Amino acid sequence: MKETNVYTKIVTDENLMETQSHGSQDYPFRYYYEHLAQFDFNCIDWHWHTELEFVYVQSETVTAWIGEKQLELPTDSGIFINSKFLHRFSSPEDAVIPNFLCMPSFLAATDSYIYQNYVKPIVSSNIPFWTFRREISWQSRILDLMKQIISAQASGSSCHLLTSALMQQLWLEIYEHTDLSTTSEVTGQFSVNRARLQLMMQFIHENYRRNLSLDEIAAQSMISKSSALNLFRSYLHITPVNYLINYRLKQAALLLSHTEKKVSTISAETGFHNVDYFCKAFKKHYQVTPREYREEKRELVKMSCILSF
Fold it and tell me: Which SUPFAM superfamilies does the entry link to (predicted)?
C-alpha cells in the first residue's frame, strides 16, 4: 500500500452511498494519497459509506461539508468522519489529502467486549465528525498518529500489523476525549430526515429524464415543498430543482464520455428538451461546451493508453 492508491472519481448509488469498497473482508482498511485537483472541479462530491474515514490535510486549505456543517481545514489539520454521514471535500487549490478508511470491525471484532464498549458507542452515536488542530494537545497527538499510519503504509511486510496497532492508539485518543453522555444513537428525527431525503433523491435519479415538479419530489416523502427545500439545503446545500439539473448534467457528461450520440440526442435523453438551454447549463456547470468536454475526455483516454504502454 503506497502512494499508488490514487482514487479520482466517487461513484455512488441512488442514495449517494459510495459503491467502491475500501479494503478487503480479511483486512478492511485502505489508504489513499489524493490530490483534489485530480477530481472534477477539485471536488470530491457528496457521498457516504459505512467505513470510518480519517483525512489529513498535507497542503493548502480544504473546505469540508459534513451534512449541514461547513468547515475550513488548513494545512496540518485533520478530520474524522463517522460511519454513514454524508460528506464532501473541495479546494480552489491542489490540496493534497492523504486519507485512510476502515470498517469499524477493523478496530475490534463486532461481537467482542472491546467493540461493544469502546467502538460501537461512537459509531452508532449522532457524532458526525471530529476535527483535529495542532493547538489542542490531544488533537495534536492524533495528527501525529495519523501521519504515522500514513508512513506505515510504506513499511513493508509489517505494515498491516503496525497499522492495526496505531489505529488502536488513535481510537483510544478519540474515545477518551468523546463525551458520550451528551450524545444519543442515530435515531428519531435525524434518521427520519435522512430517509426522506434519500427517497426524494432516489425519485429524481429514477425519473430525471421527464419533467419533474417540486410538488412531485416532495410528495415522495409526504412532506411540503418548504420541508423538501429545507432538507436539501440542510444536507446538500442545494435546492431540489438544482439537484435535479445537476444530476441531469452528470448523466449527460457520462453519455458524452462513453457514447458517440449527438449532443441534441443526449440533451433529450437527459431531460433537457431545449438543446440551447442544455448547452448553456452544461457550460455554466463544467466551464466547457458539451463538444469540448467530449474532446477533453477523448484526449485523456488517449494519454492513459499511451502511458500504459
Answer: Homeodomain-like, RmlC-like cupins
Q: How many angstroms separate the Cα of 221 from the Cα of each of 75, 91, 225, 227?
A: 41, 33, 10, 10
C-alpha dihedral (232, 236, 239, 242), degrees to nearest 10:
-140
- Among the candidates 152, 182, 212, a domain finishes at 182
Q: Tell me which residue range forms the domain holding 113.
A: 29-182
**Chain position carrying cell 500504459:** 308
Residue with cell 468522519: 81
Shared domain for 247 and 163, answered yes or no, is no
Quick check: helix, strand or coil at residue 185?
strand
pLDDT at 184 over 90: no
* Predicted model pTM: 0.73
Tens digits of residue pLDDT in 220-279: 999 999 999 999 988 888 999 999 999 999 999 999 999 999 999 999 999 998 999 999
Task: Tell me the mean pLDDT in the region 208-215.
Answer: 95
For residues 54 and 141, state if they share a domain. Answer: yes
Say yes or no: 152 and 227 in one domain: no
Q: Checking DSSP bridges between strand 99-102 and strand 87-90, what pairing results, if any?
A: unpaired
Burial readout 244-262 (b: 16 or more C-beta within 10 A, e: otherwise) = bbbbbbebbbebbeeeeee
**Reduced to 3 DSSP states, what percent helix, strand and coil does the chain have, rounded to the nearest 5?**
50, 15, 35
Higher per-residue pLDDT: 132 or 198? 132
pLDDT above 70: residue 166: yes
If we measure between CA atoms, which residue out of 69, 90, 74 comes closest to residue 135? 74
